[in-house]
Specification:
This protein is mostly helical. Among the domains are: 118 residues, no CATH class; 104 residues, no CATH class; 37 residues, no CATH class; 215 residues, no CATH class. Helix content is 42%, strand content 0%. The chain is built from 22 helices and no strands. Its main location: nucleus. This is Zn(2)-C6 fungal-type domain-containing protein. Keywords: DNA-binding, Nucleus, Transcription, Transcription regulation.
């Protein structure tokens, strides 16, 4: 019988009772006496047993002296009762010769015991020295949930740098997986749209889910900030689920509706969205080829068989397999297409043989004979390619919001008419449609934008009579106004030649957007008469991000239309909440289009703040000093915003060029306001004159490098910005030459003349009709050229 060796008591320590050790009985020689376990020497110095009491069975040799290897899962506890059975460690018997000549070895130093604990508490409970209790099916402890703190577990034994590195690597891998998931969805969507493959369905009978990296507070995941965690607001928990999990993505049909707008399912397929057999691919592309949005139209094969879906499956973009006939056509398989480096439209163009709006029962400009069907396709494609990239980063693409998922055949009447109207003004060969289209669009906007049974006149009469009460941010649901009508009104206001009417349409679109969002925010389900009767399409289910994009687009359209006006007594709307919803703070993946869209909105808000703040400064005791302080802060905000966009988005995007032009316009407006103040010191005036001229000349140089037609495709208000910048540069340069004084302007007329001439040539190359506002800007620039040429002689 043997036991584990015990450590002898050190000098000065109190004798303690030997710890209990379990004994394993074994068969031994009965002639040998029993040895009491307490008399066996400890392992501190190894002394062989006498040969007379050697065990009958071979034993395991003791481990060599030294520190034991540590493990995060093993812990060495203090001596005491053990709940686990232990194997008796017995020394091997030495040979007789060695026992005669060997002497006891000198005492070896005791082994260093490494004590490591398994993580049992989160950072907050460990700091408070409290027990960390986690409920069933919970990921956060009870204390953190009660105090609304972030529950963070991490091993204390890991080095901070190592922990941060691993957390960043894991988050980068998650983002990469999310990008790969988007790429797979992008490929499947375009392959199924062109009939190369049928719509993909998983073994569970559901479409393939799109994985998006969950939003995490990366500093809190890293150990160095877990200990510093104080009371923090608990955001919505998104554990690896889709970002829009809280929003329904599929509209649920109401069971009590006897009539409904024709659904876009396999019972009512829209095969006209497909091109004919001559445009379909004849075979699968080679494995080495890469299918991109810009090369899809070119990756056609001229010979061979092409994919013909059977009538039973109806594998079209507007149909689903038999397992889900009542659902819309695979909305998860329609990711947003990443734009090209030039920021141009990258979506699929409408084929010539497609009948636009064929699946919409309402009358449109094609059914009424105003525009030929093939010409409407040309006009719509032109509008998407040349005008939609200038929507501040808001992307228009068939099959994606705000369009219906059925494709071009489900386009609504108003946005179809607006596309044709705006494009016909810029295409001389189709300009003869412009007058009739203008009347049709005006009629739709003034009567009923969605073609519902209830008109705007009926709503006005109901408001006057008192039978209908609507707030400032409310609209009548019976009008049937949806996101397509709102976006159409916003686009019309941006490119209208009549600025007063355009500002009115912009305000209307913004009011529609606020009312539409308020209707969708109502938790109670409802159905309008127009929807039940199938007069208008059923209410669209929009995610929070889609609502935010529509709101920001209309906010910009309304603000750009009145950029030169100061809001006297008008409450300025703050877009910060919607901007933070699209581009949240922290280490998140940033959508480039959303970043540009929110940057435009923030810049407009900065201008509004300047306009409101300057009025307060002028009424203060020291207006000039207050204006200078406000101008300096506003200038820094614009520069910070531009650096943020420059970090993530290429400079050659059209929407980024818009942002640069808008920012230069705001700076010139601020500096000109300071220069015009009588109380400004004479020595400070040259500084602001120099800043104004430098910003203006730099912006004119950028405009000359944009290429032909690019400036003409910008919204109308940007022509006013170019005119304002050119006027300020011409005025200050002329003043410096005429007075021959130190005005702070180092630019000469010879430096400005080539820039103005290039801008004039770019505007004239657009070929717009003579009544367009672009010719007003051309005439103004020509007068500036004549003024500067007179100074050179």
């Amino acid at each position: 019988m043997s036991a584990l060796p015990q450590r002898p008591p050190t000098r000065g320590s109190k004798p303690t009772a030997p710890a209990y050790q379990p004994v394993f009985w074994q068969i031994a020689d009965p002639s040998q006496p029993r040895i009491d376990p307490a008399l066996i020497p400890s392992q501190s110095s190894y002394t062989p047993y006498p040969q007379s009491i050697a065990p009958s069975a071979p034993a395991v040799p003791p481990p060599p002296p030294g520190p034991r290897p540590s493990s995060s899962r093993q812990s060495v506890s203090a001596p005491g009762p053990s709940k686990k059975r232990q194997r008796t460690i017995q020394p091997a018997a030495p040979s007789p010769a060695s026992s005669e000549r060997s002497k006891p070895d000198p005492p070896a130093p005791p082994a260093v015991l490494v004590r490591e604990k398994k993580q049992k508490a989160c950072a907050n409970c460990r700091r408070a020295k409290l027990k960390c209790i986690v409920g069933d099916d919970q990921t956060d402890c009870i204390r953190c949930m009660a105090r609304k703190e972030k529950c963070v577990f991490y091993p204390r034994s890991l080095d901070d740098d190592w922990q941060q590195t691993m957390t960043q690597d894991v988050y980068a891998a998650m983002s990469h997986v999310s990008d790969l998931s988007s790429a797979v969805h992008h490929i499947i969507y375009h392959l199924s749209n062109q009939g190369i493959i049928p719509p993909f369905v998983t073994a569970r009978g559901t479409p393939l889910d799109l994985y998006e990296a969950p939003d995490r507070d990366l500093p809190s995941l890293q150990g160095w900030s877990g200990e510093k965690n104080k009371e923090m607001p608990a955001p919505s928990r998104r554990r690896g689920t889709r970002a829009e999990s809280t929003e329904p993505t599929v509209p649920k049909p109401l069971s009590h509706q006897p009539f409904r707008h024709p659904p876009f399912t396999m019972e009512n397929p829209s095969d006209s969205w497909y091109p004919d057999g001559s445009m379909l691919p004849s075979q699968y592309p080679a494995s080495g080829g890469q299918l991109t949005p810009t090369s899809e139209g070119l990756a056609r094969y001229e010979n061979g068989m092409h994919f013909n879906p059977s009538p039973a499956t109806h594998t079209t973009p507007n149909s689903l397999p038999l397992i889900s006939p009542a659902l819309p056509p695979h909305p998860p398989l329609m990711p947003r297409v990443e734009p090209s480096p030039q920021g141009q439209y990258t979506g699929l163009l409408v084929p010539a043989e497609c009948r636009l709006g064929a699946d919409d029962p309402r009358k449109d400009v094609i059914t009424e004979g105003m525009v030929a069907a093939e010409d409407a396709v040309v006009l719509v494609n032109y509008c998407h390619q040349n005008l939609s990239p200038s929507l501040f980063g808001y992307q228009l693409e068939f099959g994606h919001f705000p369009y219906l998922p059925g494709g071009p055949t489900t386009i609504t009447p108003l946005i179809l008419a607006v596309h044709c109207l705006l494009a016909s003004e810029r295409m001389p060969e189709l300009f003869h449609y412009h007058a009739s289209l203008a009347e049709a669009v005006k009629k739709l906007l003034m009567e009923s934008p969605a073609g519902s049974w209830r008109s705007i006149d009926n709503v006005q009469e109901a408001l006057v009579e008192g039978s209908l009460i609507l707030g400032e941010d409310e609209i009548d649901p019976e009008l049937g106004i949806g996101p397509e009508e709102i976006v159409a009104a916003a686009m019309l206001s941006l490119w209208m030649s009549d600025k007063a009417l355009g500002a009115e349409f912009a305000a209307t679109a913004f009011r529609y957007a606020r009312g539409w969002i308020k209707i969708l925010s109502d938790p109670e389900p409802r159905a309008t008469v127009a929807e039940l009767a199938g007069i208008v399409t059923e209410e669209r289910v929009a995610r929070l991000e889609e609502r935010a994009r529509v709101w920001l687009l209309c906010y910009l359209a309304d603000g750009i239309a009145t950029a030169n006006e100061r809001p006297f007594g008008e409450a300025s709307r703050d877009p910060s909440d919607y901007c933070a919803q699209l581009v949240p703070l922290g280490p998140h993946r940033i959508d480039k289009r959303d970043l540009v869209l929110t940057s435009h909105a923030r810049l407009l808000h900065i201008l509004r703040q300047w306009q409101a703040g300057s009025m307060e400064c002028l009424m203060s005791d020291s207006p000039v000093k207050e204006l200078q302080r406000l101008a300096s802060a506003t200038d820094l905000q614009i520069d910070d915003l531009r650096r943020l966009v420059q970090t993530h988005v290429p400079d050659d995007w059209i929407s980024v060029k818009q942002l640069d032009l808008f920012g230069a316009f705001v700076k010139v407006t601020i500096y000109s306001c300071l220069i015009g103040q009588e109380g400004l010191a004479r020595r400070q005036r040259p500084t602001y004159v120099s800043k104004t001229v430098d910003v203006g000349v730099e912006m004119l140089e950028r405009c000359t490098n944009w290429g032909e037609g690019s400036i003409a495709n910008l919204p109308q208000q940007y022509l006013t910005m170019i005119f304002t910048i050119a006027t300020a540069v011409t005025e200050y340069v002329s003043t410096a030459v005429k007075t021959n004084a130190q005005t702070g302007c180092a630019v000469t007329p010879e430096d400005v003349l080539p820039l103005l001439a290039q801008v004039i040539a770019t505007l004239e190359s657009a070929g717009l009709p003579q009544g367009h506002n672009i010719w007003v800007c051309v005439d103004a620039c020509q007068r500036m050229v004549g003024q500067l040429e007179a100074l050179c002689t």
